[in-house]
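Please check this.
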Amino acid sequence: MSEIAIIGAGAWGTALSIILGRKETHRVRLWAHDKEICESIARQRVNEKFLPSQLVPACVTPCHELGEALQDAAIVVSVMPSQHCRRLFEQMRPYLRAETMIVSATKGLEENSLLRMTEVIAQVIQSDDLPTPRIGALSGPSFALEAARGDPTAIAIASQDKELARSVQQEFSHASFRVYTNEDPIGVELGGALKNTIAIAAGVCSGLGLEHNSVAALITRGLAEMTRLVVACGGKAETMSGLAGLGDLVLTCTGGLSRNRSVGVELGRGRKLPEILAGMHGMVAEGIFTTTAAVGLARARGIEMPIVEQMHAILHEGKAPRAAIYELMTRSSKSETLRM
């Protein structure tokens, strides 16, 4: 029997508990910050707040205490919002063992430090007792609702710890959930984070009434920006043509379930960010936080990311969306293959 702890009971954390709960060999504990979510799952087997239409298997135990959730866990899956990752792992550290495999499924960057989630986790838990934490990153095109209801879904587990990657592949794979291994956690994590900013831009296009030409151009040039930054940070360009790059980018830029795209749509229609956030009822659009970190990371590496820069100006500087699109279209002419 495999003991698995999932830390974070939002839509994706709940979906992962459902996916993992389909195997009789799994015992899953799902930690929620909100007691009402625990009570909802315990009473109705449904997370009414974040994934109301999907039944949570009986082998999934909702928990409100971190110690209870982490007890004897061989695999810990972190699915909390990026801005809570450091604080939660500081609280989790006493319960983690050297052999514990940690899987980060959060698609974001830490806003102040510019670190990827696996870097944040390693920084927090690394110690004399735990000198080389076992960490991987799980990412790919995966709307929570579709994965939870059993739509065929493919994602990647990235780690330089090959045994961890193989173990996660084996434990997570199911007839409707295919897991590929990848040895480029930098590319996989940055791809999963940066696509959220590009998805906001795609939503802005839609909110402005722009259609397929505009979105196709945005996705293509957005992928070029993502690739430049991934390579500058030590990742592999080819990762961006895979599930965690192009796959997740297309999904998040075009799918109606994308929270990041939805934020962009409302911005394009003229609504202000505080008003949009107030109507999300606790849902998180990671791209809002990631955009600031992405701008900082690009500037630190000397990488030009015009789409990301314009989204930062819209989100955090009050720039009009139509003015941002105009500025993107009237930049000085360049070669498509130019790497700067």
The CA atoms of residues 22 and 64 lie 22 Å apart. The radius of gyration is 19 Å. The beta strands are 2-7, 26-31, 46-47, 51-55, 60-63, 75-78, 101-104, 134-139, 153-158, 177-182.
